[in-house]
Amino acid sequence: MTELNMLEAINECLHAEMGRDDRVIVLGEDVARTGGVFRVTEGLFEKFGEHRVVDMPLAEGAIAGATVGLAIAGMVPVAEMQFLGFAYQAMHQIAGQVARLRYRTRGRFDPAITIRAPFGGGVRTPELHSDSLEGQLANVPGLKVVVPATAADAKGLLASSIRDPDPVMFLEPLRGYRGIRDDVPDGEHLVPLGSARTARPGSDAVVIAWSHQVELACRASDRLAAEGLSVRVLDLRSLVPLDIAAIAEAVDACGRVVVTEESPQTGGFGGEVVATVVEESFWSLEAPVVRVSGFDVPYPVGMVEDRYIPDEDRIAAAVRRVLDVA
Question: Among residues 51, 129, 189, 212, which one is catalytic?
Answer without folding.
Answer: 129
